[in-house]
């Protein structure tokens, strides 16, 4: 089937195949997964100075042409790089007598168009906007026509460069969105603007051209094609703008939770005969900004759980696809987001369509990174944006420029163009009752931010970089936003790492240093740790904290943090699991069930009661999964039933066939039991070497305090029954209170340390050992995983037994042509029970019998300029911690991001040993 006929069928109105519709013929492909070869000539940079071919749509850098350019770069090629395009096409003879437009959905940046050697119209300036020319008089119908387009990467209009090209993002050139022809009757509908309110009222402005029509008739339909209500009509108005209105009693409303869509067909008629029909997808909903109050959707105050998103893919730049748009929206919904900001320009239409149908509230944005378009150019581009995007129900707010890129002359353009009168904000400015300041600290103080009078609506916060930001600090911010009436939520910066494939450098992935790795997900949308933190923190089901004790009756107090959905529309299931022991590859033994959810209205608390079996205490962990009305997992939570002491008691064997023995020399104590030999330095008090019948287990040089003076004075040894006990002695200035090793006849070894953290506030508390990283192949451990944590990013993990291969991922930094591997191997892990290191030699198993201990695995690589995103790590490389550090963002230190970002605090005047931190570890050196 010819491409234009397929497009025609897709655009046919619902009520009739006989009415004349807009016929569409694509000259290009539709996205990066569907392209058409055009002739191409690049004037500068790679592969310039010769005619060849290029896929359209595309950015030419990703096809091996021109020069890669990040927004801050200044070079000699800048301003000289152009792309010359040629494409031959035919139009059907049947189109003769119709008006034919050529439509460009986006080209970077100045675009001159010719048809058959004649100019189609003025050069278009501005990259991200749909523009069109009436080329009817330039075409040869039924014959071959020649399209020529000259695209300048940088604009001759300096204000366009200021707004679009001098930004903190990759710059590209080329026809990066589809190009198509549209054929309409000479009398036709040129634009339809619809305002469908939550009360069922519908107003529409229908713009017409030509004189061969006397009436405009509207009809609503469901997406399945069923008529809804009757026709509504109005005579064609003089001047070409006809106003229509109707009312639909009790419509199903559009929200981010219930994205119900309708279609409205507008038909021009002459003497009762259809002349031209256009149909649009719409949603009934009302958006209001109530000053000194909040943002309302359908009369309900909403909190935006949003993220900023670039239109971007590593191998195709700004050229995306419908498939990628749907995947992006699905990922955002999976993180329990309800909103997205189009930063810093209008997106592809298929992305907005995905937001419409899947349910995300959208902030659509006029470009202007730190500087604005001039008024004539900005007016034209703003009008183009509104004409293309105005009927998407997902768009609830317009943004006029970013961080100083505001042209105030464009605000009246948005007011005039938008029939729905959506709120207009300026990103990072107090404007029209909103405070959208970026990268707010947790508490700004009296008279401003949440202590002021405006609706607080940061259009960027928690600037991600590498592994910092996003999830780190979010729980503090969100709990504050949730409880503060003047908060409307906010938007994280940003969705995905901007790593581009460098065709000029062997196809490596390049983030331009620290400029691009700001995402929650990696360049190819690999899920980083913050992905799951956001998913839990922004869950619309909130579990009040509780401990699982023998008195647990299966009841949880939960809060509904939806805006429109009752929790009885969600599904809750539970699972009890018995977790495997170290070295086992067996799956957990489980029991499962479903919970009946009572009616819990939005913002209300209620009780979720699980009917657990009588033997529930025989299990190790309880999981509860919540699923939304569409079947999407909201989150899975876990609660420990068996505590570390119980698990250690099961696994540690103390008895053996003969007693442990100790010998000494001037510098060492040597202890032997069941084939295991340990040596301790009498000069330092540290473990020197471990050996068994198979050889050396290279755990050594520990335990060393993470912070604070040791003031070691000596070791003593004694035989205690069949056990050997090694005690350390410390001076009065030591942070150690005691350190004791016990070697059992079985060969198992216990270490117990008591110490005080270094100061009143501190970054690190714990002990460390050395283990050669080069010998580590992987790890199996029981604890919270599989992702690492920071002090201010504790959520997003589950208790289980996890297995992970070694990797050296530096979060956000691609390794050559490869994306980073997630989850990262190195870092801090919470709720530690036990580990087995898988090595090139013998395995090593270590258990802990206390709660609230973190495992530290080696030291991650951090970015070249880590800013506030390189937290402290102790010496050594295998640690067991009571206190770990928080992580900051690109622009903020962690202590400014809320209570969880502050240093650990522990203070005791008395130095009473009962207040000392205690850590007990068990070591299995058998090599099994």
TrEMBL record:
Database matches in SUPFAM superfamilies: (Trans)glycosidases, beta-Galactosidase/glucuronidase domain, Galactose mutarotase-like, Galactose-binding domain-like
Residue ranges of domain Glycoside hydrolase family 2 immunoglobulin-like beta-sandwich in the record: 187-285
Alphabetical keyword list: Calcium, Glycosidase, Hydrolase, Signal
GO cellular component, one term: beta-galactosidase complex
Domain Glycoside hydrolase family 2 catalytic: from-to ranges: 288-505
EC number: 3.2.1.23
Glycosyl hydrolases family 2 sugar binding domain: residues covered: 52-185
InterPro entries linked to this entry: B-gal_small/dom_5 (IPR004199), Bact_Beta-galactosidase (IPR050347), Beta-gal/glucu_dom_sf (IPR036156), Gal_mutarotase_sf_dom (IPR011013), Galactose-bd-like_sf (IPR008979), GH (IPR017853), GH-type_carb-bd (IPR014718), Glyco_hydro_2 (IPR006101)
The organism's place on the tree of life at top rank: Bacteria
Enzyme class: hydrolase
Signal sequence bounds: 1-19
One term of GO molecular function: beta-galactosidase activity
Catalyses which reaction(s): Hydrolysis of terminal non-reducing beta-D-galactose residues in beta-D-galactosides
Domain Beta galactosidase small chain/: from-to ranges: 721-809
Any GO BP annotation: lactose catabolic process
Required cofactor(s): Ca(2+)
Subunit structure: Monomer.
Family: Belongs to the glycosyl hydrolase 2 family.
PANTHER family: BETA-GALACTOSIDASE
Name under which the protein is recorded: beta-galactosidase
